[in-house]
Structure formats: structure tokens, C-alpha cells
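Per your request, structure below.
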């Protein structure tokens, strides 16, 4: 399982998802809802949730692409999908700590694995958005 906004898909996203896929037999990608992105990043994504999901499905890396929960930190998707591994980006430190806490509290047997960045340069959708 992998979590993210996945706005303005770039090579860093492709690298992350491809490496997440290699960790297990099936990759479920959970896409943050627009209101969640607004709460976390203080701005709406360039693409709507529907478009971001469509763009991810077009990559044909993930086996399943689903919407995130309505409430930040509720993690209802985790018990429903029952992943063995959650892949995290190199820049998802806060998410990593919150997930580890949730996994301990719920006594789940899930491993969190960080994926290294695509290159020495950090690729972010926010950098691409600033060039629009």
C-alpha cells in the first residue's frame, strides 16, 4: 500500500510506485482527497481527485487506486485492505510516525518501508506547480 496526493505525476512518482510494487504482489495506492490536501498543504491540488486517480490508473503500475478516508488519520482503509507492507516516500516523515503509532495501537502486523528518492534532486509536484 502507498499513500499520497499524486498531483502532476512526474518521474519521482513513477520511481516511488514502481519500487513500492516490487515490495509485494499487489499494490494498492490510496489517493488523498482534495479537502485532505487543503488541510495538510494549505492549498488545493492542481488536479481534482478524479483526475489524479485517472492519471495513476493510466500508469498501469498500481493494481488498485482508491480514495483516501474522509477524516485525516482515521486509517479505515488499512484494516479494509489489510496490507502487509506500507511503502513511504523519503519525504513522508510525519506520515511514517503517524502510521507506526496507528499500527502499534491496532496491534497490526504491517511493515513500513521507505523508498529512496528517484535522484539526488528532489522532485515535488509543488515545484512543478510553481512553473505553471
Amino acid at each position: 500500500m502507498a499513500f499520497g496526493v499524486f498531483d502532476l505525476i512526474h518521474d519521482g512518482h513513477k520511481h516511488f510506485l514502481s519500487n513500492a510494487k516490487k515490495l509485494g504482489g499487489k499494490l494498492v495506492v490510496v489517493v488523498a482527497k482534495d479537502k485532505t490536501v487543503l488541510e495538510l498543504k494549505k492549498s488545493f491540488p492542481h488536479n481534482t481527485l478524479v483526475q489524479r486517480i485517472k492519471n495513476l490508473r493510466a500508469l498501469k503500475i498500481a493494481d488498485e487506486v482508491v480514495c483516501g478516508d474522509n477524516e485525516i488519520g482515521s486509517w479505515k482503509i488499512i484494516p479494509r485492505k489489510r496490507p502487509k507492507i506500507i511503502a513511504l516516500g523519503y519525504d513522508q516523515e510525519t506520515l511514517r510516525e503517524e502510521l507506526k503509532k496507528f499500527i502499534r495501537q491496532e496491534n497490526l502486523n504491517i511493515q513500513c518501508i521507505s523508498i529512496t528518492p528517484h535522484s539526488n534532486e528532489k522532485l515535488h509536484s509543488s515545484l512543478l506547480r510553481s512553473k505553471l
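The first strand starts at residue 2 and ends at 4.

Regards,
D.
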